[in-house]
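RECORD TYPE: protein structure
NAME: ABC transporter ATP-binding protein
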Amino acid sequence: MKRASSFETVRKMLGLVDSMTGIVALACVLGILGFLCAIFIPVLAVYGGFAALGGSAFPGVRETIALLAVLAVLRGVLHYLEQLCNHYIAFKLLANIRDRVFSALRRLAPAKLAGADRGNLVSMITSDVELLEVFYAHTISPVVIAVVTSAIMVGFAGSIHVLFAAVALCAYLAVGLFVPVWIYRSAGDVGLEIRTRSGQLSGSVLGSLRGLREVLQFSAGDRRIADVKEQSDRLLVAQRALRGKTGAAMACTNALILMFSLGQLAVGAALYGTGAVSGEGVIVATTALFSSFGPVVALANLGTTLQGTLASGQRVIGILEEEPLVEENETGADIEFDGASVERVGFSYGGERVLRDMSIDIPRGRVVGISGKSGSGKSTLCRLLMRFWDVDEGRVALSGRSVRDIRTASLRDAEAFVEQDTHLFHDSIRDNLLIARPDATQDQIEAACRAASVHDFIMSLPDGYDTMVGELGDTLSGGECQRLGLARAFLHDAPFLLLDEPTSNLDSLNEAAILKSIDEQRGKRTVVLISHRASTMGVADRVVSMDSGRVS
Ligand SMILES: Nc1ncnc2c1ncn2[C@@H]1O[C@H](COP(=O)(O)OP(=O)(O)OP(=O)(O)O)[C@@H](O)[C@H]1O
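PREDICTED:
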C-alpha cells in the first residue's frame, strides 16, 4: 500500500476532522480556560499570602479565598467538559474511520486483497484505528491549548517584567517544542517498526491458527512457536527502545522545568536587586511559570507517541486511498439473466498470462461443464464471470451486455458462486446460510439444504439450524462445509450458478445427491460446473476442456 510523508499524513488526518471543527474549537477553549484556572490557583494563593501579610491591596484575603474556591470548581468542570468533547470527537471519528476502512476493503476486495497478509489487515482494522484516537483526542487540541495558554502566560509574565516573559518563552519552547522534536527525530522509525512488527506478529499467529491441522500433522509446532517468539522478541526490542525514549523525554522535561523555574527566580532576584520588580512580582512570576507547564508537558510525550500514531495513520490512509483493481459499477444497467458468454478473453494476474483468446458460450438453462488440468484457469474464468477481476482483452458478457456495463449489485444478484473453499462465519448455521438471502423463511432454508444434501446432517446436530459453527469453520468436515456452501448458493436463488469443484470433498452417495439437485436445476437455472471428476461431468449438457488457457 502507498505511504505518505509525515506532513502529508497529518494533513490528511486533519482532513478527516473537518466536519467537527466546531467541537474541536470548543474543546480547545475549554482546555485553555481549564488550564488558566489551574495555573492561577497558586498564583492567586501567592497574592492572597501577600495580602494577608499586608503587602498587597488587591485582592483581599477573603476575596482570594472565594476566588480560589471558584477557580478550583471551575477547573474541575472545565476539565471534565474538555475531556467529554475530546472523547466525543475521538469516538465519533473512530466510528467514521472504521466505516471508511471497511468500505475501502469492500471496494478493494477481492482483487487487491487476494494474497494480502490478513493478520496485518486485522491489526490495521483494530489497533491502528484505535491508535488514531491518540491523535484526535490527545494531539490536536493539546497543541492548540499549549500554544494559546503559553502565549497568555508569556503576556502575563511580560506584564511584570519583559525578562520574565523572555525566560517563560524559552521554557515553553524548550519543553513543548525542542524536547518532542528531539525525541521524534531520535526515535527514528521505531514507531513505524512497532506497527509493522505487531502487524507481522498478528499475521504469523493467525497463520498458525488457520494452519493448526497442518502444523500438528507435520510436527511443525516448535518451528512455528520459535518463529512467533522471534517476531515477538523483535517487537519487544522495538518497544523497549521506544520506552527508553519516553523515559528520556520525561527526565529531560522534568529537569528543564526545574531549571527554568530556578532561572526565573534567579532573574527575579537580580531584578529585585536593581529595584526593577517588587518581591511580590518575583514570587508571582516564578510561581506562574512553575505552575504553567501543564499544557506543554502534554506535548513533551508527543515525540514518542506521534511516531506510532503517524505510522498507523499512514497505514489507514494508505488503505483508504488505495485504488481498486475493479471499479464497482453503481449506475450501470440492471439485467434479466439470459445466458452468458466469454468472448476472445485474455487475462493475466500481474505479469503471468492465465487465459488467452478464450471463448465459451453458456446458453440459458444449460449445465456447462468445464474441465482441464490444475492451474489451467478454470477458477479464474468464474472470477471473471463474477467480475472479481476485469479481463485484459475480449469481453465477458451476461445477457449480451459486458459485465463492466452491468450494475455490480445486479450482476451479483444474478450469480451465485461456490468457490472451492467455503468460508463459514463464527455464527449459527442458520445465520451462515441467511447471508445468501437475509429474508429467507425456514422452509426456503430447509429446501436449499435438502437440495445440497445437508439437511439431515444439520438435523442430527444438537441444536439443529441453531448450532454454532466453530471459529474458522473447523468443527465441520470438508464435505459438510462444501454442502453448506452449495446450500447457500441454492438459497441465493440466482439464475446463474457457478460451481467450482462442488463435489471434490464428497463421497459418492452425497455426490449423487448433489448431481441430482444440479440435474433438477436444468432449464430453471444456468450452471457452470467445474470438476476434475468424470462422474460429476456426466450431468453437464456440454463439457468444455481448458488447457493452457485455451478451450480445446
Ligand atoms: N490471485 C492470484 N494472483 C496471482 N496468480 C493467481 C491468482 N489466482 C490464481 N493464480 C494463478 O493463475 C493460474 C490459474 O489458476 P486457477 O485457480 O484459475 O486454476 P484452476 O484451473 O482453477 O486450478 P485448479 O484446478 O487447481 O483449481 C494458476 O497458475 C494460479 O497460480
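COMMENT: The pocket of adenosine-5'-triphosphate is lined by residues 114-115, 349, 354, 372, 374-380 (CB under 6 Å).
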